[in-house]
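Weekly structure sync, notes
Attendees: PL (lead), two postdocs, one rotation student
Agenda item 3: pending single-chain targets
PL asked that the sequence for the first pending target be pasted directly into the notes so everyone works from the same version. It is reproduced below exactly as submitted, 129 residues in total.
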Amino acid sequence: MRLRLAGSGVMLLIAAMAASCGPPLDTQGFDSPEPGALLYAIADTARDRDRRHIPDLITALDSADPAVRMLSITTLHELTGTTNGYRHFDPPERRQAAITRWRAWLAENNPPANTSSPVRAPSAPASSP
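Predicted structure, written out during the meeting:
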């Protein structure tokens, strides 16, 4: 019984140490150069379905870190319903062409802030008298 408790204590210590390996809270966000902090920001955006960060997600598509690129395009697809032909594993020149398409998409769509719909909601028809 004593051995089991010691083993459980070691597992709790390892879990606590692993949790402390993430970036500190004050460095998280899209402005961080750390891929781990970017991943946290992207995951928060996906969870909240926060369209305000679509420009940040498009910028993250150009990351050197494949995990950042993969989570960015996955989140963009969930928020917009399109990938614009972007694949996180493509060679840099293909990714750049897709990022250019994303920037054009952004200029045309200018997504509304913090909505959960994957596409822009149509404007309400004018009421007739």
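Discussion points:
- Residues 35-116 form one domain.
- The chain has five helices and no strands.
Action: rotation student to compare against the earlier draft before next sync.
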